[in-house]
Every structure is written in structure tokens, then in C-alpha cells.
Design a protein that fits this description.
This protein is of the alpha+beta class. The chain is built from 18 helices and 13 strands. The strands form four sheets. The protein has a four-stranded antiparallel sheet with strand order 1-4-9-8, with no helix packed on it. The chain has a four-stranded mixed sheet with strand order 2-3-10-7, with no helix packed on it. A hairpin with a 2-residue loop joins strand 12 (359-363) and strand 13 (366-367). Helix 11 (323-332) packs across helix 16 (418-433).
Length: 485
């Protein structure tokens, strides 16, 4: 999934042609400082390109390496009020399958480029534009000489992922990603490239480069929201709207320079002619300008973007409890053969009702998938008589959604039935065991800020893993506190 998103990192160095000319030029384009150097550097070249393509950058912001949370970001040079436009990007400057030089060919062959991700046309456009010396977007794409510096877990070794991120859900997600990328490349992309060797070259446009560009799209692309149907009462229109595929991702120069926090101060707005980054709350001079990638937990940020928010500042952190863990706990208390047979029938019924035996998700304020959790607990805790009646009636009359939501909030959890609390408590305990041992010298149950010496001795990857694990484990520990007898 790609939502409005931006860059965790950007790569550059600074030079000038002459001190006086460069100061004038960079001030107009919003760059905060100038270094000496004989060559035009990638960022300066990119900013010149922005000026040529009509990207309008406010004189109240600048691109900066210092004072930002990542390699590059955007800072306020003056106080900015809510509603002010920080920059405007004409749609002609966006990079996607309809603006690339090979757009006509991609459109003609679109029936051959269908895939589960829906990203193949954009990725083929990027393969072409990234390796073409004449690319219109060369000054933009030249900012990234090595996509592995994004440091997505897909670029970690499998051993490192499994050791550092056990229990977080990331190793499983990455394994799925890599398998899907390889299948998509071999089944869709490579045959297309072989058919059009005058445009693409399998020796240049390799699986390795394709994988790196997937990470680039994950970290830097934006996705335009679907337009809402004006006639909400038209059933046919509503059905058609539900069947619409999401808009494909696209690359948005400059917007992807902004970093993310959950408490952001800017947001990207889409208009027919342009995209605008708009201030959504006052920003003081010297503060960093932050976009939002959506309500993203730290495990999602690390998986998709290669970075995390410092623990415990991410208000969107979540922890998953696999439904199989709830079943395992229930099996431990099933007792006799009759109880075990009843539980197996209940589990089979849940599989039919829920289609996929996935996980229930807890946030900082309670369960975020409360309807699913309610169904699981209600079925697994039924007596034989209740279950027989349930089957005879082909289900039950659902409780009110508001009542369910309240029952599984942090305020409502202590008031659940004793059998339900026991299942949740023990399932949380079982889930915590899946995290395994942590880095030597650091207590994974302890907030990172409480052991700065040990934290400082960790690698960047270890620190990111610690932020993810601490956020998830704190939610699970809180759940155990709320459900203890």
C-alpha cells in the first residue's frame, strides 16, 4: 500500500559557481547555505530543474541537511501560518507512467503489464528514466545514486532481519515482498523487456535494480485519493466506486524531501493542475516541516520507508496478536476430549466466518479490530449448548458497534468477562515470547531513553529494531495489565 508519503532520507552535497551568484540563486530557491566546490552538485542541479519546470517554492522554507531528523529535510526560514502554501508542483513535473517518454508504449501494452501490485508500469517508467542520460527527470533521479541507502529491511540479510525483528511481523512481510518482486519481475517485467530490447536491456534493467526501485517507490511515492462520488444515493454509482482500483503511485519531486512524524505540520493537497504542500498548523522559524505518510506504526515505517519514530513518540504504534495464539491458549484450557472437539469445531467455524485467520491489532488506546476480536472471543468461549444454538441459528444478532468498541478500549478491557480476559492476557503473554532475545546489553522491556549508553553502542539497524520492538511490547504489556485477574 502506498499513501501520501515522502522521503526518510535524501542524498546530496553542496557547491557553487561563484559565491555571490550562488548566494542569490540559493536564497531564491530556498537552500540554506553554500559550500565551495568546483562542480555542480546533485541538489543544486535538482533545484535549478525545479525552477525550470515551474515548481514554486515559498521563500519561507529551505532545504537543509542541518537541523532535520534525516539526511535532508525542509526547515522554516520564517514563521508560517496555518493555510500557507509551502510549494506548488505542476502536474507536468510529476513522474509516472503517463508522463514518461515511454508512456505511449506502456499504454499500448498495458494488458501485458497487469500484476497484483499494480506498480509495473511505473517501475518500467523508472527503469527507463533512471538509466537514460537524456531523461527529463535526470536532475531529480540523480539525487539517488544507491537506493540501498534507504536501508529498508529488504536490504538486510535474512539472518539480521530474523534476529533483530523477530515477533514484529516485518520479517514475514519482507519475505512476502521479495517473493512477489521476483515473481513479478520474472513473469511480467522480463518478458516485456525482452520484447522491447530497443528500449530496455535485461543486462541493465536487472532484478537487483528493479528491487531497488520498488523500495524507492515504497519510500518516496505518493498516491492520489480517489474522487468521491457526488451522488451518494445512487446504488449503481456506489457499487461502481467500490470496484474502482486505487490510483497508481507517482513520484512527486520536492514533496518527497519532507520527512514524516505522526504529529505533522504540513499536508499534500491535490488540485486539477498541481499539487500543493500546505501548512496545517503554525510552524515557527527554525522548525522542520513534516509531512504525513498516514497513520503508520513504527513497524510499517521501517518496513516501507526504512526508518522509525523515536519511542514512545509514535502515537500510531500498534501490536498484533495472531488469532492462532488465542486459539493455542484456548486449547491449553480445553481439558477433556469433549472440550477439545468442541474447540476444534469452533475454530473451524471461525475460519469460515473470518475467511483469513490473521491477527487482532491493538493500539495505544485499545483494540483497533474490535469486531473481529469480539467474534473470536465469543465463539471460542461458548459452551456446547451455546455453540449448538449458534449453529442452528446460523449466527447471532450482532451487538452494537459502539458497545463493542467501548468494551475493547483500554477503559473497557478490565470489565470483560473473566474467560475473555484470561484468553487475551495469556495470548498477549504468548505473543511476547515470539520476540526472542534482544541485542546484548539492552533490555528490550526497558524504554531506550532509560539506557542511553547501551543505546549509543547499537548500530543504526539495531536502534530501529529496538524502537519497533519497544513500541509493540509496551502495548502488549499494557494489555496484560488491563486483563489480569
Amino acid at each position: 500500500m502506498v499513501v501520501s508519503c515522502a522521503a526518510p532520507n535524501c542524498f546530496t552535497r553542496r557547491t557553487k559557481e561563484t559565491q555571490e551568484a550562488a548566494i542569490t540563486f540559493h536564497t531564491s530557491l530556498g537552500v540554506d547555505r553554500v559550500d565551495d566546490g568546483p562542480e555542480v552538485d546533485p541538489l543544486q542541479n535538482f533545484l535549478q530543474w525545479c525552477n525550470r519546470v515551474g515548481l514554486d517554492l515559498s521563500n519561507k522554507v529551505c532545504v537543509s541537511k542541518e537541523g532535520t531528523v534525516a539526511e535532508y529535510g525542509m526547515l522554516a526560514k520564517d514563521n508560517i501560518e496555518e493555510g500557507e502554501v509551502l510549494f506548488t508542483i505542476p502536474r507536468s513535473a510529476l513522474l509516472h507512467q503517463e508522463t514518461t517518454k515511454v508512456s505511449a508504449l506502456l499504454d499500448k501494452e498495458k494488458s501485458c503489464l497487469e500484476s497484483s501490485s499494480g506498480w509495473v508500469p511505473l517501475l518500467l517508467a523508472l527503469l527507463y528514466e533512471y538509466t537514460s542520460p537524456q531523461s527529463h527527470w535526470k536532475p531529480y533521479l540523480s539525487l539517488w545514486t544507491d537506493f540501498k541507502t534507504l536501508d529498508h529491511p529488504m536490504f538486510w540479510s535474512k539472518e539480521e532481519r530474523d534476529r533483530l525483528l523477530s515477533g514484529t511481523g516485518i520479517p514475514e512481510a519482507v519475505d512476502t515482498d521479495l517473493a512477489n518482486i521476483q515473481r513479478e519481475y520474472s513473469d511480467v517485467v522480463l518478458p516485456f523487456i525482452a520484447k522491447h530490447r530497443d528500449v530496455w536491456n535485461p543486462d541493465t534493467h536487472t532484478l537487483e535494480l528493479y528491487t531497488q526501485l520498488v523500495a524507492f517507490v515504497m519510500a518516496y511515492s505518493f498516491q492520489e485519493p480517489q474522487e468521491e462520488d457526488d451522488d451518494e444515493n445512487d446504488d449503481d454509482d456506489e457499487e461502481e466506486e467500490e470496484e474502482k482500483a486505487p490510483n497508481p503511485p507517482m513520484m512527486v519531486p520536492m514533496a518527497d524531501m519532507l520527512n514524516h512524524v505522526s504529529k505533522h505540520n504540513a499536508n499534500l493537497e491535490f488540485t486539477p493542475d498541481s499539487l500543493k504542500m500546505v501548512c496545517v498548523r503554525p510552524i515557527s522559524k527554525g522548525e522542520e516541516v513534516f509531512n504525513t505518510y498516514g497513520q503508520m506504526a513504527n513497524w510499517q515505517l521501517l518496513h516501507m520507508y526504512g526508518f522509525t519514530e523515536p519511542y514512545p513518540s509514535n502515537s500510531n504504534d500498534t501490536a498484533d496478536i495472531p488469532i492462532t495464539n488465542i486459539y493455542k491458549v484456548a486449547a491449553q484450557g480445553a481439558g477433556c476430549d469433549v472440550g477439545r472437539r468442541l474447540l476444534e469445531e469452533q475454530w473451524e467455524m471461525l475460519g469460515q466466518m473470518m475467511q483469513e485467520k490473521g491477527a487482532v491489532v491493538f493500539g495505544k488506546q485499545g483494540c483497533l479490530t474490535d469486531t473481529e476480536l469480539h467474534t473470536v472471543l465469543k465463539v471460542l468461549c461458548m459452551s456446547e449448548e451455546e455453540f449448538s444454538e449458534f449453529k442452528a441459528n446460523e449466527g447471532w444478532e450482532e451487538d452494537e458497534e459502539d458497545e463493542i468498541s467501548l468494551a475493547f478500549s483500554n477503559e473497557g478491557l478490565p470489565g470483560l468477562k473473566a474467560s475473555w480476559k484470561w484468553l487475551l492476557h495469556e495470548a498477549a503473554r504468548l505473543t511476547l515470547r515470539s520476540y526472542g532475545d534482544w541485542a546484548e546489553g539492552v533490555d528490550s522491556h526497558q524504554a531506550p531513553t532509560e539506557d542511553r549508553v547501551a543505546l549509543g553502542g547499537l548500530s543504526s539497524r539495531q536502534q530501529k529494531a529496538l524502537q519497533v520492538r519497544c513500541g509493540q511490547q509496551s502495548i502488549l504489556h499494557r494489555l496484560m495489565e488491563l486483563t489480569k485477574s
